[in-house]
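Throughout our pipeline, every protein is held as a single compact record rather than as scattered files. The remainder of this section carries one protein's record, kept here as part of the documentation.

===
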Amino acid sequence: MTQVGLVVVSHSRALAEAAVELALIMVHGDKPPLEIAAGTDDGGFGTDAVAVMEAIMSANQGDGVAVFTDLGSALTSTDMALEMLADMGEEIEVRVLPAPFVEGLTAAVVRAALGSDLDTIESEAVNSLAPKLEHLGVAEPPVAGTLPGAASLGASDSEAPHETPPDAQQLVQVVNRDGLHARPAAAVASLAQTFPGEVMLDKSGRRANAKSPISIATLAVTCGDNVQVLGYGEQAEAAVTAITKLIASGFGEERGKIPLPDTTFNSTPDTTLVAVPAAEPDSKPGTKTPTPPPPVWHAPWETPTALKQ
């Protein structure tokens, strides 16, 4: 299976390697083709157009290459590299993505490892700031989801209800301490990707595509939250069961402290005495009404004499 190639262009070799190392932690399975073009030959800061060109050629497997850059001149070097490729007659679909360096690269690495196409990788990378923006209460940037061929996976779309009821569904509680953060979200997406049908996660009426770690992150699922796993189409039952088990397992992480419901009750009987008036005696006209007896006191768990009659 061919995969979309990824290229990281940075002024700092150490920065690029650290970003790649962080992104690869999220991959569960084979790593995607990924090359780094960063720093100068003498270990200094800078970018080299020839190194960028060679990295693109090395990462290309025939399905296109996505390029991530850090600062302005990295874009200039990438533009020069693309011109050199064109002069050489190389026909490689290369997209330089307007995505955040760390979040975008992480999203792209996860998607590329799953075998996603270039359009999907572009959309994931461009929308990768959505969880952070939502957490901070900032509106999404206009560029998110507006690129040609890219479907938005932002927070607003995650709230849209599905048109048809699910073919299978299960409720599961998140038990790992840090909730569905980056690594668990990537694990869920990797597992969901192995099933042909659509899989969604629902938290309090808000839904996310279970095959997208960025979409999952927009739900901000924390320890103790209940999540509904919804499956649609072929193998829906198997997909829902597998993902439910994965979430319930805690992903091998430390379990959090989930508050238990208050099930306590007062086992001590109430000894407060309750006054129950005696039954009214029958009386006839012209007869003297006898003086009623004094009230009879009963504990609440006793049956009053008057009620036994």
Notes: Residues 98 and 126 are 6 Å apart (CA to CA). Residues 142-159, 265-276, 297-303, 305-309 have pLDDT under 50 and may be disordered. Strands lie at 5-10, 34-38, 65-69, 94-96, 168-173, 198-203, 206-209, 226-232, 274-276, 296-298. The longest strand covers residues 226-232.
